[in-house]
Amino acid sequence: xxxxxxxFESKADAGASKTYPQQAGTIRKNGYIVIKNRPCKxxxxxxxxxxxxxxxxxxxxxxxxxxxxxxxxxxxxSHNCDVPHVNRTDYQLIDISEDGFVSLLTENGNxxxxxxxxxxxxxxxxxxxxxxxxxxxVVSVMxxxxxxxxxxxxxxxxx
Length: 159
What we know:
- By secondary structure, the chain is mainly beta.
- The strands form three sheets. The protein has a five-stranded antiparallel beta sheet with strand order 9-8-7-10-11, covered by helices on one side. The chain has a four-stranded antiparallel beta sheet with strand order 2-3-4-5, with no helix packed on it. Strands 1-6 form a two-stranded antiparallel ribbon.
- It is elongated and about 65 Å long.
- The chain starts with 18 loop residues before the first strand and ends with a strand.
- The protein has one helix spanning 121-132; strands at 19-23, 32-35, 38-47, 57-64, 70-76, 80-84, 86-96, 101-105, 111-116, 135-144, 147-158.
């Protein structure tokens, strides 16, 4: 085999896991947890006492960080739960295309063109209005478990 037969697509996470294990009893409110294979922000945790059959149980209520749905899970407190690696990155907004994709400027000067406008009506309106007014906008992109979505907006003044 010659050297030029192997082409590997390089990804930013370099094969890193999308989640890491954490003991259920140590996960707190405002932390993150994976419930039903969705990354969630924990909004409520309650722990039941150890019963006749062993473990104390943690009852988690989480809000999906991408679609806002409420999910619940009950896990023995001594067991491990998956916790998503959640990253927030700020990008400057350059353009909004007709089909709902945004063009963002990365730190190294390249453009990122694979993100759609957010589905949240309030945020969507703020982005579109600010952009049409010619403001310099910075969007925060939340990334977890291979998904990315615009989650916040900062106005850094007029262009």
